[in-house]
Amino acid sequence: MARYSLLILAMSMPTSLIELKDEGYAGKIDMCFIDADKPNYPNYYKLCMNLLKPGGIIVFDNSLFSGAVVTNYHQEPCCYIHEANEKAVVDNRVTSLLLNFGDGCLILRKHDA
User: Could you tell me which residues come within 8 angstroms of residue 3 by beta carbon, excluding any fewer than 6 positions away?
Assistant: First the structure.
């Protein structure tokens, strides 16, 4: 029987992700859903990529922030969301899809090893 792991971050701290890595979860998580503090979105990106297994998915909620990420990308909290979105565009380890509904949803799939 297949076993799946799901990591949901809602109002979490990046230190809990570091703890998961230290506890041996690196490369073992199937999916991360992130709807947490926006200033840490770039940190969540990096930390979740370490935890994610090949073929795994990361979903960032609020990736367009009601369109403000496009018009006010230099202001907080939009600058952090924009930074995470930009990381996805240039990261050759993932395929990315930005869905334009609600506040936006960035979906990343980590390439197979």
Answer: none
Q: Where are the beta strands (DSSP E) in 17-91?
A: 29-34, 52-61
- Cα–Cα distance, 78 to 63 (Å, whole number): 9
How distant, in Å, are the alpha carbons of 4, 31 from that of 1?
10, 18
Instruction: Kindly state the average pLDDT of the residues 22-28.
Output: 88
Q: How confident is the model at residue 5 (pLDDT cuts 50, 70, 90)?
A: low
- CB 16 within 8 Å of CB 40: no
Look at residue 72 and give its three-state secondary structure: coil
Euclidean distance between CA atoms 41 and 83, whole angstroms: 8
